[in-house]
Amino acid sequence: MNTPTWLRRARQALLTGAAAVALAAGVLPGTTATSQAAVQGPCDIYASGGTPCVAAHSTTRALYGAYDGPLYQVRRASDSATTDIGVLSTGGYANAAAQDSFCANTSCVITVIYDQSGRGNNLTQAPAGGAAGGPDSLANAYAAPVVAGGHEAYGVYVAPGTGYRDDNTSGIATGDAPEGMYAVLDGGHYDAGCCFDYGNAETSNTDTGNGHMEAVYFGNIKVWGYGTGNGPWVMADQENGLFSGVNAGYNAGDPSVSDRFLTALVKGEPGQWAIRAGNAQSGGLSTYYSGARPNVSGYNPMHKEGAIILGIGGDNSKGSSGTFYEGVMTSGYPSDATENAVQANITAVGYTTSSGTGSLTPGSRVSLQATTACCTSDYVSHDSGDDKVVISPVTSSSSATTKADASWIVHRGLANSSCLSFESANASGQYLRHYNFELYLQPLDDTATNAQDATFCPTTGHNGQGYSFQSDNYPTKYLRHYDYTVYVASDGGSNAWDSATSWADDTSWLVDQPWG
Ligand code: AHR
Ligand code: AHR
Q: Least buried of 58, 190, 273, 289, by fewest C-beta within 10 Å?
């Protein structure tokens, strides 16, 4: 096989050795909107440390300084055509604009997450497995927008039912062979389902016994293991066990984590494994466990099989949620020093959630103010105690929580990228959606209806002020407050909130600077 150009260049880049590793931190200015010249990626650092990447997956950026191939593939709903999304420049960030033009006026799913290591370990739609049928669902390509290196990009939003896998890999650890892995995740998007994983799993899609997996897990399921607080926790899925330390169940060394952007690492070698994590926006890594294999039979030696999973358990358990931005798997047990240099490379990306304020431009943060005379101090807010959506007063002296509850991140529409969706500013991965024509704030499921329920098309405000927001799947209905609760409503109709009285005012909203 011919060595691809980018891989040859990557190898040449490695010849610069230690100096290149030293440069790895801080070379990607987080706020620069222009593309950078070739820089070091995490996989260059792992290679310099003697533990090269054997799989490298990201929808946001190249993970080698010399990579200029495709990052992922999307498929659009309108005609089922697919296209590859590449990088803006060699070693740089995703060309999200290519997705936006390809997916204009329709929706897209992520069909392939390419392996950048040159080994062909691409992640595609996971097949049925022992725990659940399949094939699994594919991620909505607009559900996890992010800003990376100052550029708009899209992560992989895993709703329950979504999963990616590669059962036929090259170079991934098997048996008790050493390996490392990390994933950069949305630390606010998780649940207690089984099992949002990234890493090594069974090639048969079934549970073949203890020690047949070694994967990063993130979430707050307590069935197998947990740490301090209420979660979520980073744990290692080693099959029939999410381990937070040497014991099944509780281990005091594994804390709940709360970073919006989370770096989560797991590594294992004969008789030894570790969990490490850190804030992917700044600072270093902490070691939550490093030591002997679990004191439960079947995990020493390990029986790793070398398939790769994302968003699911080894047996295709697919009841969990999470968001993935980038991750790799290595051959060999990386040193802490190598991982620390990788973390510095990750923090230098400057992952962040939004890029502007006060407008309906995707990436902007806004508050939505009612225009009806009763209610001009009221803003679209999510309730703290439940998932209902209301209008309620916010002032400069309101609490930070009240302000954040009334703040929204504007995204391209989940069911129609030419319209809009609204993610809560303080509940990551949760979107405004209607159900029985009432508004709720909820994480997405994997259905097309849910994406439509969460998509609104802005028009000029019906009373001449601001904007009205038309429901994507019920075009006669618009976002409306009625008795301080938010609905989608038509101008006269069978529901109480379809009342024609003050419909034009109740469906007109000012788009303001965000309160939080
Ligand atoms: O180890 C936890 C889960 O148990 C695995 O992911 C799955 O294969 C099994 O159901
Ligand atoms: O809100 C109207 C419909 O109610 C939604 O489209 C659907 O999710 C629910 O049945």
A: 289
112/36 Cα distance (integer angstroms): 25
Catalytic residue selected from 166, 315, 405, 498: 315
What are φ and ψ of residue 6, in 5° steps?
A: -65, -30
Element (H, E) at 337: helix 336-347
State the pTM of this model: 0.92
DSSP string, 193-223: SS--EEEEE-TTSS---TTS-EEEEEE---S
214 within ligand 1 shell (Cβ under 6 A): no
Select from 436, 444, 447 the residue to mutate for testing ligand 2; criterion: most ligand atoms less than 8 Å from CB.
Answer: 436
In angstroms, the CA 101 to CA 68 distance is 20
Phi/psi for 498 (5° steps) reads: -85, 5
Q: Which residue has the tokens 């998007």?
A: 189
User: Which residues touch 105 (CB under 8 Å, ≥6 apart)?
Assistant: 78, 416, 417, 418
Question: What's the CA gap between 143 and 482, in Å, rounded?
Answer: 28
Per the CB < 8 A criterion, the answer to whether 179 and 327 are in contact is no
Distance from C-alpha of 500 to C-alpha of 26, rounded to nearest angstrom: 58
Q: Which two tokens stand for residue 441?
A: 């704030």
Of the candidates 396, 397, 371, 394, the one whose C-alpha atom is nearest the C-alpha of residue 382 is: 394
Measured in Å, residue 263 CA sits from the centre of ligand 1 at 22
How many CA atoms within 13 Å lie on the side-chain side of 453?
A: 22
